[in-house]
Every structure is written in structure tokens, then in C-alpha cells.
Design a protein that fits this description.
mainly beta; five-stranded antiparallel β-sheet; 2 helices; 5 strands
């Protein structure tokens, strides 16, 4: 997937507990929709990445990823950026923009 076809929606910032959950800093508008995203990441191939559970908690999402069952594996994912396909985003209204569309523009 090319850089223009993917949108950064979150980043794994830390493990959570001992059963493999992770803390995800979300850049999405609604963290409640995080479990429904078709996430792509450099650390996972194809459909290997799937949230089993994603619960909003303060300013992060506590998430359980299929196949990540212990703290050591969760720790190894620290810093992993999570993307979705640009095509998965809804159309915007007039005078609305996605943040990714504004990168590189001059601000006056």
C-alpha cells in the first residue's frame, strides 16, 4: 500500500497487564470504532492483525490483539504504527478535511 493510500489511526504505546493487552494512542475521531477498523501494520502480514477487544479508556484504547497472549509479546509491539486504507474512510462534507490531507500545506 502506498503512503497516500493509508492513514495513521493509532500507535501502540505500551503493554497493559500480563495477558498481552496493549495501550493504543488513538488518532481516530471515535475510539469506539477502533475494533471495527481493518488495521494494517508493518509488524503484521495481511489479515494477521485483528483486534479481539478494544475498549476506550481515558485518552487511549486498551486492546487485545489476536495471537498476542503475553506481556513480552505485547512489549515487542511498542511503537507499532497502525494504519487503515484511505478507501475505508467516509466521504467528507464541504470545507472538511482529513488531517493527512493538510500535511505539507502552508498555514497563513
Amino acid at each position: 500500500m502506498t503512503e497516500t493510500k493509508k492513514i495513521l489511526v493509532g500507535k501502540i504505546v505500551a503493554p497493559q497487564g500480563i495477558r498481552g493487552e496493549v495501550r493504543v494512542q488513538s488518532f481516530a475521531e471515535k475510539t469506539t470504532d477502533f475494533k471495527n477498523f481493518e488495521i494494517q501494520s508493518a509488524n503484521f502480514k495481511g489479515d494477521d492483525f485483528k483486534f479481539v477487544r478494544a475498549v476506550p479508556n481515558s485518552n487511549v484504547v486498551i486492546a487485545k490483539i489476536r495471537g498476542v497472549d503475553d506481556r513480552n509479546t505485547a512489549e515487542s509491539l511498542r511503537g507499532t504504527e497502525l494504519f487503515i486504507s484511505r478507501d475505508a474512510l467516509p466521504d467528507l462534507g464541504t470545507d472538511e478535511f482529513y488531517q493527512a490531507d493538510l500535511i505539507g500545506f502552508d498555514v497563513f
